[in-house]
Amino acid sequence: MLTDKIQHIKEESEKDFSTVKNQKDLEEFRIKYLSRNGLLAHLFEELKKEQEEYDKLEKTFQEKMEIYNRNVSIVAIIASIITLVVSLTLFKKILLIADGLLLGGVLTILYSIIRGFGSGNNKFQFIIVSIAFVASLFLGYIKLAKSAKT
Q1: What is the pTM of this model?
Q2: Chain centroid, CA 6 distance in Å
Q3: Residue 56 DSSP class
Q4: What is the CA radius of gyration of the chain?
Q5: Which of 12, 13, 90, 122 gets the most CB atoms within 10 Å of its CB?
């Protein structure tokens, strides 16, 4: 592993530096560790390769995370709309449960919107916010219209 190599080079360089007695030894130390073909140069090449590999893996992770966020957002918006419909239609007599389900549906819509913004797709973000807005207006109107009639 890279950290083991760094530790090894550190220990070796400290040992080699302690044996430096004159200008010639110092020059050999410089060539061994600090030159273009020295140990530090090779270490930085390995570090650069590690960084490139990390960047590639990070990009792959971000792409998969965007797909995951989109899928979770779709499932959450469907679940929230079902919850809102159930709260406004099936539980007319039990207001406490209906109101709890209504609040749960609204919070699930908010969660869906937040996940939708993690998708990285502007069209999808617009669609998910529009669906949530229309569902909220429609179901809110139904709730308020029915409340006004009674």
Answers
A1: 0.68
A2: 31
A3: H
A4: 31
A5: 13
